[in-house]
Amino acid sequence: MTTMDDVARLAGVSASTVSHVLNGTRKVNDETRLRVEEAIEKTGYRRNVVARALAAGRTNTVGLSISALTNPYFGSLVYAVERALSDAGYVLIVGDSHDQAESEKRVVDSLLDRKVDGMIVAPAAGSERTVLPEIIRTRTPLVLIDRGADIESDQVGPENTASARALTEHLLDIGHRRIAVVRGLAGISSTTERFDGYAAALAGRGVDLDPELVVDGESNTDAAERGVHALMSRANRPTAVVSMNNAMTIGTLKAIRRLGLTIPADVAFVCYDDFEWSDLFEPKLTAAAQDVETIGATAVELLLRRIGGDETAPQHIRVPTTFHHRNSCGCT
User: Fold this and answer.
1) Would 69 be classed as within a structural domain?
2) 254 and 266, same domain (yes or no)
3) Is it the case that residue 53 has pLDDT exceeding 70?
4) Range of the domain at 35
5) CA-to-CA separations, 62 to 84, 256, 299, in angstroms, rounded
6) pLDDT per position as a tens digit, 176-198
7) How far is CA 201 from CA 67, 181, 206, 213, 326, in A?
8) Which pLDDT score, from 0 to 100, does residue 256 have?
9) Is there a contact between 270 and 286 (Cβ–Cβ < 8 Å)?
10) Are residues 150 and 296 in the same domain?
11) CB-CB contact of 306 with 282 (8 Å)
């Protein structure tokens, strides 16, 4: 590896002169500066930015532990976080937890080893008993994103319960009573909150919650497709379906198509999460859309405050969704 001393020898100057040229800490005459710059180019020397940052007590990096980067929603969320951090002069390091405890621990340990200035985490199931206490123990500034946990930390996510309730109530309003739900991965706060919204809508209209109409979609496409296919193959199938995230929405649509059924003629459909390309679907999907930009930017704003030394009480922020009424519900 080329060192600053190698550059200094080639340029015929001291290592301190090379440092002044690189860092602009002292004026260097034009002839000397040119020799140093040429030596840098010839040797391919690069500064050890990490070592310099660590010496200054900052790395200007932020770690993000998040699941299912192939999910369009999480991809958009990563983009929103990265853009906000980049505007503030930070570099984002991303690790995919795959919603598994072992993977999440590897990601978090790796980020902590890299001395990131702060961390943003979309916690996997059980994180409040595993990785989150470790982050807090190291006093690394932390913000939870998308999902919550029972810890003392800033948390930013979408409004889940009221949004899921509104989707279900919309189907009830247009006459459906056998409404199935495709719920997400167990142990995740957003799964619980969205299912609570579905259950509250039924209870509010005097409709019993039928366990046979609950599909465990596990927050992924394949599980949702299998579960919905089995459900919709029954003689007494539901007349409407609510999907609780966009990966499961894709699985649900695949299952319905495989069975030769059509939306909304054979089954009405609404979903939590919207797609940027929703208008390309036919029928167009009635959906609760998350404000991903606001969620990402708010998480970054809170984290940068903590990095800057803010010691006020943690904030729990819920960002409202937007109801997009299209024609998959069958009432337009």
Assistant:
1) yes
2) yes
3) no
4) 4-47
5) 11, 42, 12
6) 999 999 999 999 999 999 999 99
7) 29, 12, 9, 15, 20
8) 97
9) yes
10) yes
11) no
pLDDT digits (tens, 9 = 90+) for 89-118: 999 999 999 999 899 999 999 999 989 999
- My answer on whether 183 and 102 are in the same domain is no
Identify the sign of the CA torsion 104, 110, 112, 118: negative
End-to-end alpha-carbon separation of the chain, Å? 67
Answer yes or no: are the C-beta atoms of 248 and 219 closer than 8 Å.
Answer: yes
CATH label of the domain that carries residue 30: 1.10.260.40
Checking if the pLDDT of 263 tops 70, the result is yes
In a domain, 208, yes or no: yes
The answer to whether residues 153 and 168 belong to one domain is: no
Tell me the CATH number at 284.
3.40.50.2300
Q: Which of 29-43, 160-174, 273-287 has the highest mean pLDDT?
A: 160-174
CA within 13 Å, CB half, 236: 5
Helix and strand element counts for the chain (H, E): 12, 12
